[in-house]
Amino acid sequence: PKAIHNICFVGAGYVGGPTAALMALNNPQIKVTVVDKDDRRIRRWNSRHLPIYEPGLAEITRIARDGLEGAKDGNAAPRKPNLFFSTDVSRCIGEADIVVIAVNTPTKMRGAGKGSATDMTSFEAVAGEVVRHARDGTIIVEKSTVPCRTAEMIEQMIKLQRPGVHFEILSNPEFLAAGTAVQDLLSPDRVIIGSSPSVQGRIAAETLASAYTAWVDRSRIITVNVWSSELAKLVANSMLAQRLSSINSISAICEATGAEINEVSAAIGADVRLGNKFLRAGIGFGGSCFKKDVLSLVYLAESLGLAEVSDYWRSVVEMNEYQRNRFSTRVIRRLNSTLVTKKLTILGYAFKKNTSDTRETPALEIIKTLLDENPREIAIYDPCVNRSVIESEIREMQSYGPLLKEDGGCISVYSDPYEATSGTNAILIITDFDEFKTKPVAPPSPSAAGPAAGVTDALRKRFVAEPDCAADCPDCHTGTGYIDPSAEYKPKQQLDWKRIASHIKSPGWVFDGRCILDVQEMKKLGIRVESIGSAGGL
Ligand code: UDX
Question: Which residues form the active site (predicted)?
Fold first, then answer.
């Protein structure tokens, strides 16, 4: 492999930022720069309040970016900063040995393939910039999730724009999940590197691998051809989504038969061939990746003329929507099909626990269905997502007219769960936050959470704690008086269900969209729970 001195990540988002931070932390000799044309985003990456929240990320970023090796007894040992954030895109690309493209590749919303094909606008623009500004011999890495054979598109650009110049193109998809990004990056199940089969391609793959072997065992780094690597990312997410749709389809059978979905999941998950992960039934998957990647696979199959294959994968998304609608319909039916005089409380707005990420959250779709019934009030509480973020997302649903109470609508967002549930006719559990569970949940021990958690804890201990900044901190202001919405999530207190039971309207409905409540315990408090995948509580 060739020596690496400088890596440039293009795209300071959920993937580029954390991946670059880990790369820099583990390779102090490499200068890692994250570039983005969005000046506001870069300012926040350079501030004490990062634009995204991931447990452990602030500590790692501070160490690599500010040169704080952490502290013993408050004394920081200096380390040379090697993580930088910049808007000077072309200059940083021109200085790099490796350029990693980590920009958004959402679903195309108009034109050919709309609703399923991948929108390559940002990716193509960045690839163009890389091809224009990179030095001869630079390795270009696709980190964004892209359609199979995207590397070919970059090759064509190179041929047209820089004939005679040689760039190797690698595919190195990212498998991190929101809320566990640092852990996933610290101890990945595998790192996939796709390259051309040529000698130069293999050298490029080994060069990139050497940046990972600083902390990942070589046996976990899988080198394959570039098309397999591009496709593997789509397939991994699609198979996970398919598993959820499969278990969710079975939950409908459970509700109609008296079988319990949690018991079925435990029973089948004990088979090592199936494994026990990703078997929790619920209101369906959300998040930025699953739907988008399944649809991208659907589009790929369609464009290859494989109608049966594309129909098969499309049904995974259809089942997800069916599951979510089934839940909303059940809530409305239980409330005698009329919500006009009723208050409903949404517990959890993020698409899953321990994240402030709201992309493709099922909460929004469920709220839309409830709105059609003209309820008296919809109250929303989330322990992690900032109120102003939820409010602005609700305001964006303009076709529904004014929705927030202060604008004359029926939706209020609360920062106190007891105000949100006071006098409510029904509580809907939308996100699986531990705070919502019937009984306190012990934090996972470092050993149970794997070695990564231990590393993160150790880092945290070494990290120099600084006092929180004042509300008028210049770091967090973006010039509009807007304060950082991703303020660190610290698990709030466990919900006091006894207190909630005392102030909700009879007959005390709670609809558990995540199967996290203990139905019997709740019954003792006078709360009637209806859970996904269970006929109990009826
Ligand atoms: C996913 C993949 O896990 C990750 O590898 C990829 O890089 C990005 O997409 P993410 O979307 O962040 O990550 O979250 P994940 O934890 O996979 O959950 C996705 C959705 O499935 C969430 O809405 C979650 O609540 C739901 N889910 C997950 C279930 O309903 N049941 C489960 O058992 C697991």
Answer: 289 (nucleophile)
Q: Is 174 within 8 Å of 19 (Cβ atoms)?
A: yes
pLDDT of 44: 87
- Rounded distance between C-alpha atoms, residue 46 and residue 499, angstroms: 43
Q: Please state, as a whole number, how many other Cβ atoms lie within 10 Å of the Cβ of residue 459.
A: 18
* Global pTM value: 0.90
Binding residues: 36, 41, 105, 145, 233, 278-282, 286, 292, 352, 359
Render pLDDT for 221-244 as a digit per residue (tens, 0 to 9).
999 999 999 999 999 999 999 999
ipTM of the complex: 0.96
pLDDT at 537 over 70: no
Other CB atoms within 10 A of residue 330 CB:
15
CB neighbourhood size of 72 (10 A): 11
β 6-10/98-101 pair status: parallel
| Ligand 1 nearest atom to the CA of residue 355, by list position | 12
* Atom number, ligand 1, closest to the C-alpha of residue 352: 25
- Alpha-carbon distance of 99 to 16, in angstroms, equals 11
Query: In sequence order, what E strands does 124-243 have?
Result: 139-142, 168-171, 191-195, 221-225
From the CB of residue 25, how many other CB atoms can be counted at a distance below 10 Å?
A: 24
Of the candidates 510, 529, 514, 508, the one whose C-alpha atom is nearest the C-alpha of residue 261 is 514
Residue type at 329 in one-letter notation: T
Query: Does residue 487 have a pLDDT over 80?
Result: no
Whether 359 lines ligand 1, by a CB cut-off of 6 Å, is no
| Residue 287, ligand 1, Cβ within 6 A | yes
State how far the Cα of 383 lies from the Cα of 356, in Å rounded to an integer. 9
**Ligand 1 neighbour 176 (Cβ under 6 A):** yes
Rounded Cα distance, 390 and 329, in Å: 23
**What integer is the mean pLDDT of 16-35?**
97
Render the burial of 172-187: b for 16+ CB within 10 Å, e for the rest. Answer: bbbbbebbbbbbbbbb
Does residue 361 sit in helix, strand or coil? coil
pLDDT tens digits, one per residue of 137-191: 999 999 999 998 899 999 999 999 999 999 999 999 999 998 889 999 999 999 9
d(CA 9, ligand 1 centre) in Å: 25
Catalytic residue among 8, 148, 254, 289: 289
Q: Does ligand 1 have an atom closer than 6 angstroms to the CB of 282?
A: yes
| Of 317, 352, 366, best ligand 1 pocket probe by most atoms within 8 Å of the beta carbon | 352
- Contact by Cβ (8 Å): 348, 431: yes
| Residues 118-137: b if buried by 16+ CB within 10 A, e if exposed | bbbebbbebbebbbebbeee
User: Is 289 a catalytic site residue?
Assistant: yes
